[in-house]
Design a protein that fits this description.
alpha+beta, 6-stranded antiparallel beta sheet, globular, single chain, Phosphatase 2c, domain 1
């Protein structure tokens, strides 16, 4: 199903358990009324990962929906700088929402007696904007779910994975390389989290891709770029199916979730 925001922004999403997993621990959200797109990839086993990803999205949606509606009130129309959910910048509202989601899942881990080895958690990646100003957006992530921008035929990865391997690269590749899929942080296992949050200004014609690593572990960036190049921008649902099918064709070893969004105009 494709969602449309006043002809300015369209989005569609798809999730699939893949070929090797009985359970799908991924979840996604498209809420054009709140200006929120999210993909979450849960972990923890015994359906705990599914619970973590669903809870993280639920908490963030509740806080950011309230933040969007309050920010549109006349008394909040200025350039506030507070970090509460009801005022201030998109960056501040997103930071508040991520902290709240982390608190909820971390508390569940403590209540259930889960230790570091079996704690539930989730990665998250998202796009948040005021519905009246979709071109000016906040990008956020924790973990290795990714955000890409496709512009003028070129694919650019906007987020950097929170992983031991990415940290190793950033530190100059000293010593043996760690495993590719060891997360340096996620939502839930720890009592604190340091999300990546950044502002982006988009243009008409831009396409955004949010995805779990079930796609990027199996489909190269160059192949994703080729699929988006050939995609009908007016049929994002078919684009989602093409990306998921590409991962399935390459083994489908993990849950696969993709959300595509397309900008067709401004709005200030």
């Amino acid at each position: 199903m494709q969602f449309d925001l006043n002809g300015k922004f369209r989005a569609a999403g798809l999730t699939n358990p893949g070929q090797m997993r009985e359970n799908n621990e991924d979840n996604f959200l498209i809420d054009t009324n709140a200006g929120l797109l999210v993909v979450a990839d849960g972990m923890g086993g015994h359906q705990s990962g599914e619970l973590a990803s669903a809870d993280a999205i639920r908490v963030m949606q509740e806080i950011l929906t309230a933040g969007s509606s309050q920010a549109r009130r006349p008394e909040n129309s200025g350039n506030g700088t507070g970090n509460g959910p009801g005022n201030g910048t998109g960056h501040g509202r997103v930071a508040t929402a991520i902290t709240a989601a982390n608190d909820v899942i971390n508390t569940l881990n403590l209540e259930r007696g889960y230790g570091p080895r079996d704690a539930m958690g989730t990665t998250i990646v998202g796009l948040y904007f005021e519905p009246e100003r979709p071109m000016d957006a906040t990008i956020f992530h924790v973990g290795d779910s990714r955000f890409y921008r496709f512009r003028n035929g070129a694919l650019d990865r906007i987020t950097r994975d929170h992983s031991a391997y990415e940290n190793w690269l950033e530190d100059g590749s000293k010593g043996p390389a760690p495993g590719l899929h060891i997360l340096s942080q996620a939502i839930g296992p720890s009592d604190s989290v340091a999300p990546g949050i950044q502002q982006q200004t988009f243009r008409p014609g831009d396409i955004v891709l949010l995805c779990s690593d079930g796609l990027t572990n199996l489909v190269s960036d160059s192949d994703i770029e080729a699929l988006l190049t050939s995609m009908d921008i007016n049929d994002l649902s078919s684009g989602c199916h093409a990306l998921v099918e590409a991962a399935q064709s390459n083994g489908g070893t993990d849950n696969i979730t993709v959300v595509l969004g397309a900008y067709s105009g401004g709005g200030t």
